[in-house]
Amino acid sequence: MAEEFGLGCEILDQDRMRQIGMGSLLGVAQGSTEPPAMIIIRYMPSGTPSTTDHLGLVGKGVTFDSGGISIKPAEGMEKMKYDMPEAPPC
Fold it and tell me: Which residues does residue 39 pair with via DSSP β-bridges, in sequence order?
């Protein structure tokens, strides 16, 4: 899908994450039955950029929805998802 819109896409699997030292993410991923993956989407506009600044967007799912709920204190847990959009019906 990224290619269709002129975007670069790189998917890091568990082995690649280990190679580049992503120990924190791999540690959290041990609590999941699914293997970890990181999807990197890059937009590289044509022409000379007007700045050397970079903008990075990180999906919130990696910080909450990846199983960490069981290691957090129970008090106030129900409020953890108040800022998340409601999922569309299946």
Answer: 11
Residue 31 contacts residue 67 (beta carbons within 8 Å):
yes
CA angle 5, 6, 9 (to 5 degrees): 95
Pick left, alpha or beta for residue 67 (phi over 0 → left; psi -120 to 50 → alpha; otherwise beta). Answer: left
Looking at residue 17, its amino acid is M
| Euclidean distance between CA atoms 84 and 82, whole angstroms | 6
Enter the tokens of residue 42.
Answer: 């890059």
Q: In the prediction, which pLDDT does 87 show?
A: 56
CA distance 27 to 31: 8
How far the first Cα of the chain sits from its last, in Å, is 22
- SS3 call for 28: helix
Q: Which helix (H) or strand (E) holds 40?
A: strand 38-42
User: Whole-model pTM?
Assistant: 0.56
